[in-house]
Amino acid sequence: MLTVGIDLGTTASGVAYMKDGRPITCRINGNVTIPSVVNYSGDQVIIGIEAIYSPEVSPESTVSSVKRFMGTGNMFREKSPIEVSADILSYLKNNVERDLGRKIDAAVITVPSHFSDAQRTATKHAASIAGIRILRLINEPTSAALAFGLDRKKDGIFAVYDFGGGTFDFSVLRLRNGIFQILATGGDNYLGGDDIDLAILDYNSQLHELEIDANEKIFGKLVAKFLKENLNDAADIKKKYTYKNRDYEFLLSQNILQQVSCDFLQRTMEISDQVLLDANIDSSELDGVALAGGMTKLKLVRDKVRKHFSTTIWDNINPEEVVAFGAAIYADSIVHKNHSLLLIDVVPLTLGIETLGGGVDKIIHRNTPLPAMEKRYYTTYQDNQTGIKFHVVQGERPLASECQSLANFELTGIPTMPAGMPRIEVKFSVDVNGLLQIEARDQKTSVQQTVVVDPSSGLSPDKIVSLLEKAKKNQEQDSIHARNISLKIESQRMVKFWESMVDKIPFSFQEIAKSGIVNLKTALETDQYEDILLSRKKIEELFGPFLDDIINARLSGRAVTDLAGELQ
Questions:
Q1: pLDDT tens track for 74-102
Q2: pLDDT tens-digit readout, 356-412
Q3: What is the dihedral of CA 291, 294, 300, 302, to 10 degrees?
Q4: Class for domain 351-431+435-463, per CATH?
Q5: Which CATH code for domain 477-557?
Q6: Rounded CA separation 144/20 (Å)
Q7: Is 332 in contact with 315 (CB distance < 8 Å)?
Q8: Which of 53, 269, 285, 448 has the maximum number of C-beta atoms within 10 A of its C-beta?
Q9: Residue 145 carries which DSSP code?
Q10: What residues does each domain of the chain span?
Q11: Which DSSP letter does residue 415 get?
């Protein structure tokens, strides 16, 4: 049995599992994460780094940062966010199972702490379509806290500052008598490293008076990301940028980075302060702050956090791996029934029902510990009314129209009585995964209506059922065949990628690489799974040490004309 933790990220995703009592990252093509980018070219689905850099990809068929749209009806290349996420999860699952030689039995999947019920439900659907059984959804900051081993430290109050490529989360946690409780959490789905990359690009575009179109802007952001991640302690750094057959020199200095990122960093501090206020905690009471997310690798960010909180800072784990590590730890604890590890998460947004006049009767408030259950009582407003319609919403605004609509349902069969006489009990229950169930019952007749909130997420119920049936049909018989096909198609694409990159590695390794590619082609022609796997691993081991140089060479030598997630 293999249980894993999956960090399904906005810009990058990764998987970890437990080995000899500690979390291990499942490396995919030599990397701890893959870009959360998918390219749909005809019948092919290209995922990860190939979806950005392979010569065959096109801007019209590439999707990235889809996580920001989970729980919505948006469509991308005729795919819903659920379907795109399912493809990413399937890719992760297939690679891990192939490399470890074991099937994934179940997983803990992480989500942003401020994800709504619709977004959590959509994540569960994506996992189901990918054939992954979810043990539990866990908030990303909670997962990071587990990875840092806060559950093994003394009792106290801690915070997790999670600044990723696409989102920001901040959570306050209390450890007491072995119980790990989230006191408050908050964040922003549209605040991340991508925004700073774009700001760096805009600065340089204005400097050179360039009018960069949408496709070229994606490549420009990758150059900006390179500058940001390689600045380190240097005074400044420069990088060539080719636009419309002309070369420009983009630059970044510590002062410029400070200038373009100032507002974004200040926004993270404002969110953090609000979460502390929600938890009724002063920053001076914090016993430590754990850092997660790719942006926390920047000295500028770490210095800002240290200055703002003036407490112990934990940053000794690679922020790209920390969330998956924590999920793996928690998955292992569930399977082995480690009751000493108890997590109590909270409701991310207030849940309620629309009232007459368009107001909101708030039933379960934001930051209520999970699982949670609350009841309200309603009645009719007209004589002889035999049914009541309920509109369930989520959010902090006073008007229902300003909140997110979750569901509409009607309780019928109420006996005819004068207005105000019937007594209808409505019960809201939120489980440990943050998913909502609603029961409405007429106390006199016991007529009842139960709704598990599954809001429109861009995928109809019929289509979800169809996808699930396809995924489960002939599962055992087709598993080996599907594994072989997946490896063969993926390896054929990688051959093209490696052939286009072989001249970017040191000259002394080029002949070995070319010979390895020929061996892989031969294995592909004979259709022997073990030979393909062995040949491919040899090439991956050869290219692995030079991968960053290969990417940088690609950045400086060819424009990327497509939608790209942040490479972490």
A1: 888 888 999 999 999 999 999 999 889 89
A2: 767 788 899 887 888 889 999 888 877 888 888 889 888 877 778 778 788 888 888
A3: 10
A4: mainly beta
A5: 1.20.1270
A6: 20
A7: no
A8: 53
A9: H
A10: 351-431+435-463, 477-557
A11: P
